[in-house]
Amino acid sequence: MDTKGNMKDKVLILSIESSCDETAASVVENGRNILSSIISSQIEIHKEFGGVVPEVASRKHIENINDVVAEALIKANVEPKDIDAVAVTYGPGLVGALLVGINFAKGLSYAWGKPLIGVNHIEGHINANYIENKELQPPFLCLVVSGGHTHLIHVKDYGEYKILGMTRDDAAGEAFDKVARAIGLGYPGGPLIDIAAKAGNKDAIKFPRAIIDDETLDFSFSGLKSAVLNYLHNSQQKNETVKTEDVAASFQEAVVDVLVMKTIKAARQENLSTIALAGGVASNSRLRERLQEKCLSHNYIFIKPSPILCTDNAAMIGCAGYYKYLSKEFADSSLNAMPNLKLAN
Ligand code: KG4
Ligand code: ZN
Predict the structure, then answer these.
(1) What is the pLDDT of residues 92-144, one digit of tens each?
(2) Is the Cβ–Cβ distance between 252 and 185 less than 8 Å?
(3) How far is the centre of ligand 1, averaged over its atoms, from the C-alpha of 188 (Å)?
(4) In the Cβ-directed half-sphere of 231, how many Cα atoms lie within 13 Å?
(5) Ligand 2 center to 148 CA (angstroms)
(6) CB-hemisphere CA count at 13 Å for 194?
(7) What value does the mean pLDDT take over residues 278-302?
(8) Residue 287 within a domain
(9) Are 223 and 318 found together in one domain?
């Protein structure tokens, strides 16, 4: 806003994301144009523990956040006076990790005299679709598949969401990570299963398709995970060699089958003809390929962010923050971490 309270035609948002194991900062112009996006990943540190260690994540965020934010400003070639608002993820996520980003954003907002905006991490993932698809406007359907969430969402308007279905147990990414660990692929499992599956036979092992019942748009992946563990256990008892690539391909196909089937069903139910993907698992090559095929045959428009915008980043937070800036949804200094923040009821 200018000094008369009018909206400017060029709005720059500095955004910060620290909900899990990526410390990220970005400068986004008018919600759709990335001027800089810096991501400092802690994957190498958490790898040796086989998963994210919350306290280690918080400590690493504290060490990195200053440099990451400074770099975002330098790369964007902007100064604090050019920034219109500071947006930050305030949930869902790891509480200690979120607090680092929130507190840093509060400090900047106070010191620079700029408004503070709290952003829901899942809303950020959905909004990543606007960055490379400048014409995209609500309404559309979005399948959000990340390490912590599996949601089918009707995006009714900017900031207005209807949850159509969600996982009743494990998130899709969680299932990828757990199965990867069981077959000895390491952490994070999703990208490693994606690669291994390319060398495997997706029809080698018949794993269950957790459709639950036909009425619901909810998901369930814990049964599939148990089926993979049982298969590994039985093979070991029978002294049979397990072909890791076949397990990866067959498991991945079972997940993708259910995700694609429910997504198409949701689009039909809600009468939506644009389908978008979001979250870390959205970078899965087989999911992208299968959904693309299905959308082509149903005449739906299919939209997906580049893989770097699917996994955690701050540009998506800046994009979501821009629409909150337009509707003047500002936070005050009491903004706190909400580890279980919901997108909608
Ligand atoms: O969105 P994200 O970066 O963090 C959360 O908000 O959770 O998602 C991380 C998840 C991890 O479970 C990771 O294994 C999964 O996304 N993932 C993938 C792929 N790349 C990342 N899963 C399947 N295939 C991939 N290519
Ligand atoms: Zn995420």
Answers:
(1) 999 999 999 999 999 999 999 999 999 999 999 999 999 999 999 999 999 99
(2) no
(3) 7
(4) 23
(5) 7
(6) 18
(7) 98
(8) yes
(9) no
pLDDT number for residue 326? 96
Q: Are residues 193 and 279 in the same domain?
A: yes
Q: Residue 316 belongs to what domain range?
A: 12-127+310-326
**Quick check: helix, strand or coil at residue 339?**
coil
- Return the ligand 1 atom nearest residue 177 CA: 14
52 & 194 share domain:
no
Ligand whose nearest atom lies closest to the CA of 180: 1
Q: Tell how far CA 157 is from the center of its chain.
A: 19
Q: Identify whether 333 is part of a domain.
A: no
- Domain with residue 268: its CATH number is 3.30.420.40
For the chain, give the percent of residues with pLDDT over 70. 97
For the chain, how many residues are written?
345
Chain centroid to CA 101: how far? Answer: 17
Of 41, 123, 127, 146, the residue with max ligand 1 atoms within 8 A of its CB, to mutate for a pocket test, comes to 146
Q: Report phi then psi at 37, rounded to 5.
A: -150, 105
208 & 173 share domain: yes
Considering the domain architecture, whether residues 160 and 245 belong to the same structural domain is answered as: yes
Q: What are phi and psi of 301, to 5 degrees?
A: -85, 130
Digit-coded pLDDT (tens) for 68-101? 999 999 999 999 999 999 999 999 999 999 999 9
CA–CA distance, 345 with 334 (Å, rounded to integer): 23
| Residues in the ligand 1 pocket, defined by CB under 6 Å | 20, 146-148, 173, 176-177, 188-191, 194, 279-281, 283-284, 311-312
| Residues, beta carbon < 5 Å, ion ligand 2 | 146, 312
Q: Please check whether residue 44 lies inside any domain of the structure.
A: yes
Q: Using CB atoms within 10 Å of the CB of residue 251, give its burial: 0 to 12 exposed, 13 to 18 middle, 19+ buried.
A: buried
Residue 186 region by backbone torsions, left for phi larger than 0, else alpha for psi between -120 and 50, else beta: left
Q: What is the distance in A from the centroid of ligand 1 to the CA of 187? A: 10
φ/ψ (deg, to 5) at 183: -100, 10
Q: What is the enclosing helix (H) or strand (E) of 295?
A: helix 285-298
